[in-house]
Amino acid sequence: MAVYQATTSAPVNIAVIKYWGKRDTKLILPTNSSLSVTLDQDHLRSTTTSRADPSFEKDRLWLNGEEEEIKEGGRLATCIKEMKGLRREFEEKNPSEPKLSSYFVHISSRNNFPTAAGLASSAAGFAALVSSLAALYKLPASASELSRIARQGSGSACRSLFGGYVAWEQGSKPDGSDSFAVEIAPQSHWPDMHALICVVSDDKKGTSSTSGMQRTVETSPLLQHRIKEVVPARMAAISKAILAKDFDTFAEITMQDSNQFHAVALDTYPPIFYMNDVSRAIVAVITEYNRIAKEKTGHLKAAYTYDAGPNAVIYTPKENVKEIIELIVKYFPQANTFSDPFGLFGAQGVGAG
Ligand code: PMV
Fold first, then answer.
1. Which residue from 13, 187, 206, 246 has the highest number of Cβ atoms inside 10 Å of its Cβ?
2. Which CATH architecture has domain 4-187?
3. What are the residue boundaries of the structural domains of the chain, listed by start?
């Protein structure tokens, strides 16, 4: 008997222009466009196996070996339903194909990094889920089409369907049909770019991005300013900087946007704190490192950014990686281990997964 099964993996992506705020919470439509770099690290991937079988009695999903409930109308159910819908269309066009859309699926997903610690686990998770179902169903869908479905699992997941430099266009249509990810440049465009992940803590985050965003949208006047006055210009400028491989501009905008995202979190009422004292100390070290570099060479050497957690991601040209690791290890001596409270995942290229 035929076995219908597919395994794929997806990497995490780390935004340099942050998505924070939904204009539609069900469809997951953002209040601003965002832009990220997809990491190409073996350390930070979700691997997902999907299987369809006529003997299955319901859709089921395991995350890191533990079964998760697929709530009706929830995000997992939505992604699975949308993918089955695409398969159904495919079967209608190709009547000789087996009717997999009518079978239940079993899905097993594993992250090789801490889940929900501000390391974009849901981005890799939903991207891997959607791409494994696309492989199982042999769908001819483009990455942008699949990104529209992954978006409904976790907004940032839509960007993990591409490698390299990826924009999520917010779109304006109420049905979300124009809110998807597009490639700005492949990883090979700027192979010199590296990302260092400094794991300050792998505890689960205190405020989930979903509840945090909602509170910010409801209470932060700074968010309204950011959406209207700041992000559109930054999206254009950083896209241009990426295409021109202009690291100074890329770094400056990346750090400014991380700062503003955390300012918006602080402007939320009650406030949200994702960075901690170690995160702030890393900002100080990188700021000083850049000040000295700028004085000597006229150029910046590194850009920090922080998501909804205390862990730092440092983007830097390859030539500086060793120096930055030495610097971090000097100021944070625990950093040369993978253990708490401060592990360093090391440095690798960013890009296509
Ligand atoms: O996709 P979510 O709900 O996990 O939100 C991600 C939000 C940030 O990571 C903080 C920013 C981003 O654009 O990835």
1. 13
2. 2-Layer Sandwich (3.30)
3. 4-187, 193-349
Residue pointed to by tokens 């602080």: 266
Residue 156 CB–ligand 1 contact under 6 Å:
yes
What is the pairing mode between strands 45-53 and 104-111?
Answer: antiparallel
Cβ of residue 170 lying under 6 Å from some atom of ligand 1: no
Contact residues for 266 (Cβ-Cβ < 8 A; gap 6+): 272, 273
Query: Above pLDDT 90, what percent of the chain?
Result: 79
CA distances from 81 to 88, 90, 150, 268, 272 (A): 10, 14, 12, 34, 34
CATH of domain 193-349: 3.30.70.890
Query: Reduced to 3 states, what is the DSSP secondary structure of residue 59?
Result: coil
195 C-beta closer than 6 A to ligand 1? no
Q: Which tokens sit at 165?
A: 């430099």
How many residues does the structure list for the chain? 353
ipTM passes above 0.90: yes
Q: Is there a common fold for 4-187 and 193-349?
A: no
